[in-house]
Amino acid sequence: MKKKIRILSLDGGGIRGIITCVILKYIEEELQKIDHPNARIGDYFDLVAGTSTGGLIASILLCPGNDGKAKFSVQEALDLYSKNGETIFSVSFWEHMFNIFGLFNEKISRRNLEKQLEQVFGTLQLKDLVKPSLITAYDIFDRRAKFFTSHEAKASLENFYVKDVCRATSAAPTYFEPAKIKSLYGQEFTLIDGGVFANNPSLCAFTEARKIRFSEILNDPEKPDHPNINDLILVSIGTGEVLKSYTFEKFENAGKLKWIGPLIDILLSANAETVDYHLGKMFDSLGKRNRQNYYRLVPNLGKASPDMDNSGEKNIYELIQAGLAFVDKNRDLLADIAKKLVRNK
């Protein structure tokens, strides 16, 4: 029998990506126990997809080391988030005074983000990531979805610097200004956060996987080409469930300004829920064994703030606690995922 294609999909959510890292860290530690003491989770998936903060995490996990395998552990990714988050999301006193709530300009300066991306990725190119990847953005000039795929970046037309890919996928409207980037071929794009259409990129990842000849790209004849849904193990991780209620009385006469925040919240969560619904139904149509190969992991935020830019020390602590609480309640499930990843490597 062919091995399964292992897909990891990571939602957007700003600083809440810390929760994602905590969950992945536990899975990686299980891999180290049952397979190899220096296991890196980037080596145990055949395709990694990410939107916004998920795209940043995916890029970190797929950075190549000198041996051609994944360079960074999840702990190192978590350290980057917890240590640099406050720098990336900081807003100076004067920026706050003249740009209250981001009404007149982007809420956060892009400079800190771009500086951090330069330090982490330097001149690393998309084509050099260790595994196939799919990272989302949206082209506001040509009005179409833009997918950055490392396996197609071998052609110069589709190759980019990873730091530019991460800048594009994280350009959340009202938080950061759009990203104007160029491919290494010289083509220019004006892009915003892929969360506007795929905050949960799992369905995009499945569609992308259908195009790929994995046996050739991974140099493994036991991996199926153009896999169907029954050929997959799909692990999809959210950044914390946000279920804020909005009453009719509060919004019956609401104007554009009052709707901006709630509308963004609703669109992001509704997108993720719809994708989960479709994939759940697709896997439910399979036999008993294969239908258990879809994992949608969505932690409760607990005491953590739902805001994507709350990088205060207390909130970072609460985000870590939310991730740990999810791990504690789902140890058997996460161990099962690790075992399946090893069996199909």
Task: Walk me through this protein's architecture.
This protein has 345 residues and is of the alpha/beta class. 43% of the residues lie in helices and 13% in strands. The chain contains 13 helices and eight strands. Strands 1, 2, 3, 4, 5, 6, 7 and 8 form an eight-stranded mixed β-sheet that branches. Helix 1 (17-34) packs across helix 12 (313-329) and helix 5 (110-121) packs antiparallel against helix 6 (162-169). It is globular and about 60 Å long. The two termini are 13 Å apart. The model is unreliable at 88-108 (pLDDT under 50).
Spell out the key features of this protein.
alpha/beta; eight-stranded mixed sheet
Short description:
The chain is α/β, with parallel strands linked by helices and 345 residues long. It has 13 helices and eight strands. This is Patatin.
Major sheet: size, sense and barrel closure? Answer: 8 strands, mixed
Low-confidence stretches: 88-108
Task: Give the strand content.
Answer: 5-15%
Helical proportion, percent range: 40-55%
- Order of SSEs, N→C? EHEHHHHEEHEEHHHEHHEHH
Q: Give the overall pLDDT as a whole number.
A: 88
Structural class: alpha/beta
Q: Ends: how far apart?
A: 13 Å
Total strand count, please? 8
Bulk shape: globular
The DSSP helix count reads 13
Motif (DGA/G): 193-195
GO molecular function: monoacylglycerol lipase activity; phospholipase activity
Family: Belongs to the patatin family.
Domain PNPLA: 8-206
